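Review form for a predicted model. The reviewer records the input and the model, then writes brief findings.
Reviewer: anonymous (R2)
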Amino acid sequence: MSDLSTAYRRLMFAYPGRYRRERGDELVDLYLEMAGNRSRPRPSDAVDLIRGGLRERLRAAGLSGVADGLPAAAVIALAALGAISVYYLATVEIQHLWPSSVDLPVGPFRTPAALAYLGCLVSVLAFAARPGRFARIAGVVAVLLVTGVLLTRAAIGMPVVAMPAYLLIPLFALSALALAAPRSPSWPVRLLPLGVTVAAVLAAGAHLPAPILGGSEPVGSIWETSTWGYHLCCGYLTPTTYVLHLTAMAVLAAGVAVALGDAINGRARGAWTLLILLTPITLMETMRLYGVEPLARAAVRAVGSNELRVCLAGMLGALVTGVLLPLVTGQVVRLSRRRRVVD
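Model under review:
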């Protein structure tokens, strides 16, 4: 067995064992034929094999529709990412709005978190200008920047990054989901995230009315961040946490609209899109989940830090929407298919 053949077989780790046994030789021979005189697999071949393996695993679990719903969910996530990044840059990261001696300035911004927001905005621009490989590279850079800020927050904390981890985790989820944006979208689709981002810029510049509703009367505005900054745990009715709630509601509305539109046309793709979006929606609603039992009780028992408690409550909620709910959905799909075959 040649080294190239061995390399391709190793790349098939993502496929279920049964598939590798039944069709592994056939698939490897196909890639060897396309490889020509190369001595190692191309990066694109590795990506294709891993993607194909994940598709097979989803199909085996009754979740094959996830792949169909992923592109639309990614575009919605990218639009949300652009809007959130504009908001935090405009209202918190500009130093003169909330000066603090504990932050590490980066240019005109308060903390290195601004680099992550700028990376997210570049990924929005890249998707509008050159969707495909260029946009995906920009998206990967955005994910790495958000991850870097999140890890810095975890390792060093407030002296460098004032943004709490429970605000960074939703950004990571959105940026990671955005990597699945379609390679060859139509013009309306590729311009949608940019349009939402530009609208956020205009809204921030004009300070359009955006009250924080804590009951029958507004308790403030999302633009009133000069005395709050990012705000550390655990108030839901603060500008920087409430804006995630508003974004979550907008993402939910977009997901429902896509699901209804596809349902009218007799397609289930939109329902899968909505299912995928439930995880970032849950993470954006982390602050509200922190007050819900038994999530709050479990978080309090597990960790001591308020910030970590909120993060844990959000992660437990995401476990339900991102793992348990899809598994249950997959089982329902598999049972319905078996009944159709029997009938």
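Findings: The first strand starts at residue 211 and ends at 213.
Further findings: Residues 65-337 form one domain.
Recommendation: see findings above.
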